[in-house]
Amino acid sequence: MRKNSVLALIAAFTLTLAACSGGGNNAPSSSPSPSASANSEASATPDAGNDGGEKPELTMLMQYGLFDPNQDPVSKFITEATGYPIKYEMLPAENADEKLNLMVANKQNFDLMKLGAAQFYKLATEGALEPLDELIEQLGPNIKAAIKDDSWGSAMIDGKIYAIPETGSGISVGEELVVRQDWMDELGLQHPTNPDELYEVLKAIKEAKNIVPLTGTKDSIYGDIATAFGVVNEWNDIDGKLVHKAELPEMKQFLAYMNKLYSEGLLDSEMPINTSAKAIEKFSSGNAAMYKLAWWSASSAEAALKQNFPEAKIGIIPYLKSSNGEAKVGVNLATTWFIAVPKVSKLKEDAIKLIDAKLEKDTFKGLAIGQEGVHHELKDGKYYPILPKFNDDLTNASVFMTGVDEHNYPTYWQARVRKDPVLQSYYEAFQANAANTTIVVDPMSTAPPIDAVSRNKQKLTKLLDDQVLMYIAGSESIDNYDTFLAKWKAEGGEEYVKAANDWYQSTKQ
Amino acid sequence: MSLKQTFSEKLFNVFNYTFFILLGFSTLLPFINLIAKSLSSESAVISGKVNLLPVGFQMGTYRYVLENDMFLNALKTSVLLAIVGTAVGLFVTTITAYPLSRVQLRGRKWLLLMFIFTMLFSGGLIPTYLLMQELGLINKLPVLFLPAAINVFNMLIIKNYFEGLPDGLEESAKIDGASNVRILFSIILPLSLPVLATIALFFAVAFWNDYFTAMIYITDQDLKPLQLFLKELLVSSSGEFLKDNVDAALNTTPQSIQAASILLATLPILFVYPFLQKYFVKGVLLGSVKG
Fold it and tell me: Region (Disordered): which ranges (chain A) (predicted)?
């Protein structure tokens, strides 16, 4: 009964649209059948992938990007490939959550929403999103082929799918310690392989150059050094149980080490307030010798360094080894975006059809890396972008994606890294170094949204981060860490850890 | 000055002048730094070498910004908003202020109180949003100026100015047979140019600088005014936004282009000041004397 009324609505909408639009420039070029047949066809064959008839205009809410989505070449490509005219609206760059709540509370009409994890969880539990199991089953053969079983879990609440999960580029590491190689050579220093050697190297640089050698940002506390102490991921599997990094006994050793660096003037005291631009500035102006570089800022960092010191060289320090000689790298594979259909949408079936059409193998490839010979070329099994065409047309492609072809996207995506040889060389060097270590995937990556986790995560992360900075800067004594941990547990940590473990144990049965 | 200055007085003056010249100059420093950054090569900006003079001179940033459709679109929206918004705001505020400035208006005190009430209490963000939605104003240009068209504070300044004009003017116009509307437009307004220019400037600057209204009510990229565009340009290049978003991190806006955008977004309204400056001080003062 309800389905019929939805169909009738769709049909009515298509008709009005067909009547009004006439020669609109958004009309797909590949829709030969006259609009008069749209009515009968739409109601007669709801499930078949009918290409005939005018398709209704869909409205999609996307995350912020600095471009006009309705003018972007990618949006034209999607409309041409799928036949759907789409109106895009964006959340603001700041206060996006508030704005989203405002729009949802006021039942503003969207047919598709691309949401972050917290946004998705909030809307789904508030009942604002449509469960999609049936629609995907009926209308989404490409969706089912594109998305791996593991990923679906992240979009399920109480056994129902509320969104198409969009994962990223597969296993890859983003950051690694880099050092002023010219100074290392000048001082005859070797790359450190563990925290103790790192300490000696930093000390030698400090003495020779009279600078604070290691800099960083607030967001880069963990990573290389912490991992060498055993603080690998946010969540760690210890003897089959999930342990949060705050609970790890190694955390104290890590903090004591960082505090030692800090108090001896080896670690930048402005680290808690540095932005990543500031860290690059310190490194490239010769005020720091070492910091954790993200490969995506490698080209600008290297160019800035060469500007100041044409002779300077950047050396990449292999991931540090722990005391038992093993190097590890922590990776989080959590779903980044969730593509949901809100309950207020009147075009739910079309929304799913659109997602399905975008995930059709060739269409998705076109969306990700364009046409062969025009936007990209294939060399030794690797995709290389053709510039500037690739940048002109596809710079913003990822913002438009609604789920990715998980079998192929990691390969396609790397074309973006190959836009720039410097970028590419750092990316590849980091990945090669990581391949020499044990890559540990955060076990919570594939977890579904869990109430106690979503509720506490943000608050507890902030609580821990703030406290950790105090320990590093020495304004709190690390002897009191256990007191802090008790407080952390009392403020939700206990239930946070328990909920995560309940889920983790359930996956093993 | 017939009195000869003593040495210490001279010294004091020299010190005073130097101090205030330096102080005045220091307010210009951020602008100079911004200009230098916008004219420098990106790698010089990133490495922190640019202070007051450009390093690695280039003008490409300005060409880039001025060829950017989003910037031009936002500029168009902002100019339109400032002009239309100021005109509407000034008109509505004036015709509200005039009756309220006349003692013969019945219930004047209560009416005034009602206006002042809205200065102290507002409906709050969400009810206002709902109202705008019911009025069908979401994602429409008027939402940016209609709710702000009457500014009670500005209205009171104009009202006070009107009250300061001699009653005789109005009486003699009445005797000559002029209607109330005629009196307002032919007698009162021409005499009130200073205050009107001041309030026009208030409106123009407020509309030009406002990003919040647009952030709340506008999601359509084509309707975003310049300040919102600027804010989003800066926020989308900041660490908080880029965290966990590799694709966005790959496309950040270079700092030199950010600097050029900030400068180009600030200049237009800066040029309005000199033309209205002469009315400015006079206008605010005159209006407030009788308050």
Answer: 24-55
